[in-house]
Amino acid sequence: MLILAVLLIFSAFGGAAQITSVTGDAAFVADNPTYNAFSESFDRGSVAILVRGDITEPRTIHAIDRVDREMSTKANVHAVTSPADQVRQEYGRIPDSEAKIRDVIGSPDYTVVQIVFDTGLTQQDERPIYTQAVEATDWAQFPAGTTVTVTGSAAFSAQLSTLIQQSTQQLLGLAIGLMVVALFFLFRGVRLRLLPIVAVFVGVIYTFGAIGYAGVPNSTMTSAVFPILIGLGIDYSVQFHERYEEELESHPPREALPEALSGIGPPVFVAMLAAALGFGATWVSTSSPSIIWFAQTSIFGVLLTFAAGIIVLLPLLTLWVRRKDDSTEETQTPDRGEDDAPTTATATQSQHDSDRVGLVGQLLGRSARLLASHPVLVLGIALLIAVVGFQASGSLDTLADTEGFIPQDLPAYIDLQQFRSVTGGGSSTSYDVLVTGTHLKHPTTLQWMLDFQHVATQAPLVQGVDSPATLIMQYNGGQLPRTESGVKRVLETVPEAQRLQYYNDGRAHITVYSAQDMSTQQALSFLQNTRESIAYSSPPPGVTAEVTGTAAISTPSIVEQINSRNVTTGLGVLFVFILLLLYYRDLVKAVAPLIPMVFVIGWQNIYMYLLNIPVSPLGASLGAMTVGIGAEYTIIVMDRYYEEKQQAGVSRLDAVQTAATRVGKAISVSGMTTVFGFSALVLSPFPILSGFGFLTVGVVFLTLIASLVTLPPTLVLLDSIAERVTAMRSS
């Protein structure tokens, strides 16, 4: 098994090398025909080089000209525009006279060199162009006193991609470090107590390989998965480890291993499937690629960390036990006479059990018995708090602005903000309309574009419209030609690079400009106003106009994800319920583990409200995650309850106490180590991940409390009801 584990590690390295990253709004844009058509024809990324200083200084224009010429030769660059183009067009060269330069471009205190890419490029294709632009500005030797800032979509993507990789590695290392501390202090009384970390780290390596082979890219959201996986994977390994140690007390390793796996394996396996289904509910309830990648990575992770617990932890532990020959000592029976044999054996076993479970286990067992003795009171209080939480959910703030997801001190973001403040604009203030159909160059269609411009600019938040009609009027003395052939003659006079921004591949492109720094609600209103303006202006028959582009798709996608959080949570509950019903074929056993999770779903809203944690697209999936993750604790306690209840002469309260005593410590250790793992997210440089870290830490802690406090009375209450129903049916 260990040889197989090592071979899989080497195989995983090959998959990990294939991982790509997607950043920004593009991570929230789902595949659709309109966007694909727009991207193919008009969606050109760009790099903007902001030059501030004495622009008319000949040395400055010469440096701009060198950048212009250098970048024009690079692959995947469609066009480069700069004031050097205007000066060259006027004089055929760059003159050394500041007066001549001023006559052409005036006396600006800043200018922009725009590097426009070819269409159809991925973010991976665009990033080298940004690097080349930075190198070109260094090589061009701008004079002292001139400030040069390289910004744009590719700059943003490149820096975010690097930061995501660094953040993933840092969070992974931090989570492992916290796990080591947690296991060292919490997981006492067992051999090789840090061994679960080895197993879960191998599982994380497998996960990297799996997402690489499956083509799942890394993004801001997916970087949150790995601390979560460490927390979840530790759960599986700790449960295997703890039960194996328990069986080694009375069996040699060859017998203890199958006994341990047959006892703890099925409930942990079902719990792992429940966690996978919780993430699966997030997958099927959203169209946002970033959230789908998060769910897919999480599903791979829980499956593979579970597998690593079996093929790494258990073989290593077995080899260690055999080497130390612990089983010989533990299974030896001391010599004793017939008279004192039962008493001595019983006393020894009792002392063994007491030492094994420790003070924490005994305390958990007694608490569970006390709580289970008053099921109506305990569950009534839990339900009341949950109802308050459900009422508070409508008062929670939301985080839907993608710029709020990223570190505000990211150099690319600071450069973008400077660019906006200096130039008064930026790519985030423009939205795209794709026009398709027949006769797109006919005067009737162009007149509709002017009508749309008039209607749209009367709507709130719309500040301007740029369309093929305005381009043609610019090159035709402010008038529209009366015939389609006349329109085509005017277009022939337009430079090709400019013409392709408006007409390409039989499609037309309209740009609608909005107010800067709109809130999420304002952006949604702006998009709705634009769509209503299109409908009101009535495109000619055979012509279709649709708002599209990353900015127009990402914001509604994020808001939809947040608004659908109740649906996602409901699907998570349904999926896990079906799983438990199919596995146990018992309604009580299918319902009991879910009741504490329903309480937690309500409680977490109070936690978010008190700490002022907004609902993000990642946090919107937490309800389904809570059900999937928390089901592990409740399933393990419930399984042990029914295992103990089968013993002769054991009452429901006795079974509850024994179950909480024997597995309560294990789930407490695994729960607290999960909290430690999730807490690594709190230190993420990404605000959305940091907030998610605060949220998950609290929710996992609440889940652990719900499992230990509300599950015992739930089991006793439902079990007693089930027995009464069975008795009534029998009579």
Q: Which key phrases capture this entry?
A:
731 residues; alpha+beta; Alpha-Beta Plaits; 28 helices; 67% helix; Mycobact_MmpL
Strand content: 5-15%
Overall SS class: alpha+beta
Helical proportion, percent range: 55-70%
- The coarse overall form would be elongated
Q: CATH first level of one domain: which class?
A: Alpha Beta
User: For the terminal residues, how far apart are their CA atoms?
Assistant: 53 Å
The gyration radius over C-alpha positions equals: 32 Å
From the 3D structure, determine the CATH topology of one domain: Alpha-Beta Plaits
Largest sheet: 5 strands, antiparallel
Compute the number of helices: 28
Uncertain segments: 326-352
What is the mean predicted local confidence, pLDDT? 84
What is the number of beta strands? 9
CATH superfamily of one domain: Multidrug efflux transporter AcrB pore domain
CATH architecture of one domain: 2-Layer Sandwich
Organism: Haloferax sulfurifontis ATCC BAA-897
Pfam families: MMPL
Membrane topology: Multi-pass membrane protein
Main location: membrane
Quickly describe the structure:
Residues 192-319, 625-717 form the SSD domain. The chain contains 28 helices and 9 strands.
